[in-house]
Amino acid sequence: MEILYVMLGISLLLSFSFLLAFFWASKHKQFGDLVSPAWRAVYDEAEKVNNKQNEGEQHEREV
């Protein structure tokens, strides 16, 4: 029965620390822009594909 009190205390402490971390992140604008990072990954991939295609075309011209 005593373990329940220990586990309850640990769970409350842990949940309170997560709540504080969330409020800290919100206050410091960590959730300001949720859209741009996803699109940045798409554009990076498109640039890599375009660069590889351009390198292949240049290699074909040299040969």
Write up this protein.
The protein has 63 residues and is mainly α. It has two domains: 1-30; 33-63. The protein has two helices and no strands. It has helices at 2-27, 36-62. The longest helix has 27 residues, at 36-62. The radius of gyration is 25 Å and the shape is elongated. The model has no long low-confidence stretch (mean pLDDT 80).
Question: Mind sketching the topology for me?
Answer:
Elements: H1 2-27, H2 36-62
- Give the fraction of residues assigned to helices: over 70%
How many E strands? Answer: 0
Query: What is the general shape?
Result: elongated
Could you describe the largest sheet, including whether it forms a barrel?
none
Number of domains: 2
End-to-end gap: 80 Å
> What count of helical segments does DSSP give?
2
Rg computed from alpha carbons, rounded to a whole number of angstroms: 25 Å
Enumerate the spans where pLDDT stays under 50 for 5 or more consecutive residues. Answer: none
Strand content: under 5%
What does the average pLDDT come to? Answer: 80
The helix/strand class is mainly alpha
Order of helices and strands: HH
Summarize the entry for a quick read.
By secondary structure, this protein is mainly α. It has helices at 2-27, 36-62.
List keywords for this structure.
63 residues, mainly alpha, 2 domains, 84% helix
